[in-house]
Amino acid sequence: MLIVCLAIIAAIPIIVVEPLVISNISGWKITKNSMLYVVIVNGMLFLVFSNVAFPGYVQEFFEPIIYLGLLQIFSSRNIKINLFYTAYTVSFVYFIRMLFSTLIFRKLLGESVISVLFCGILGYLCVIPAQNILLKILSITPKRFIISDQEFTLVEKVGADVEKEQDILIWLFNVVMILLYLINNILRFSDNGLKIHYQYMLISFVFLFFFLLYTINTKFKKWENRRLLVYKDALLSNLSVYTSEVDEAYQSTRNFRHDFANILISMRKTIETESVERIRQTYAEILEESNIKLSESQKEVAKLSNIKVLELKSVVSEKILKAEARGIVFELEIPRAISDLLMAKTDIIRLFGIMLDNAIDAVSVSEMDVPSIKLAIFDDKNIRHYIVENEMIEKELPVRHLIKKGFSTKGDYRGYGLSNLVSIMERYPRGRYQISAKNYKFRVELELERK
Length: 451
Description:
This protein is of the alpha+beta class.
């Protein structure tokens, strides 16, 4: 009875540690339903194998299936990525637990049944600290590890060959880690003759795990470096377009001032000698001949001079030109100089890419005579506001569904923009977002509070 009670206590870390490891490496959030799933499935396995001397050991053979099922049910990733996070979790938890419990704690506490169970619990307690150290050494952060998991709006596709290489490594990791996990457990539960080779197998397991994980991470960093280079080129290109537009607007303004002065001079004599009707006619003729014109797009691009952050200025100007090519009018409200962003530049660029691309796509299919998009950036006391508003063809849309990953009104394989927007904003404790889609208007407002 005592052994069964200890086995139940030993099962608690299993239920808690593995979900924490998966959550930490993948960025997937643990929910009440997912934890209920883990408790029920592990409880059922415990009851089914309760007649076995150590029912907790039997569960180890089912752990890959349990956690693959967990991710398949509660996450939106494909099976390849879910299998990778499963293989990572069961492998990492297993070898950290066994290294500490078998090679350290058992040497100190002995080989009795109670000591073995207690050492197992201590081994589980070492997993989370070891996980944090590993991620820090490899500079891995949740959601930024697997290339195919990344969503970018400014640079659509970079380094496809690197992504394919990482895919091959991920499949290799999945197969090798699951096989080694099962073989290690078979050797551990076998007769004493095979147990001699178990420790060597465990060390080989650890070496392969780190080698494959390091290689996968290296591929990601190589891909990210390529993306940053392309991103830099895109910014420089957009900035040159913006500079050209501003120069054009400035020259057009100078021409207007010069021509306006000439008009007044040429009309002076007419005003002194002619009738009012003749003055009107002369004014119309001169104005038509002068062909004074300052386009709306140039005036709007010129307003970007209040944005002092070149990266943000570049992406906004690029979207204005994209909208102009589709016959869309951009209305800007940037009353004062914007010299800081209150968040990382890469994040604000992704946010504006998402908001403006969605707005352009929505307005492009609208039936307005003059389709338009409104963009406002301003400060109200200690709060920065970023607002994008556009017309839409629907009278109302369900916002709670729009922010879910994979949901889209544009068809299949779309719908990642707003979910990415939400995930970015959630990283900023002082940030808030408001999304409304009603009365044929779609509006996204981001608020960032200064410290």
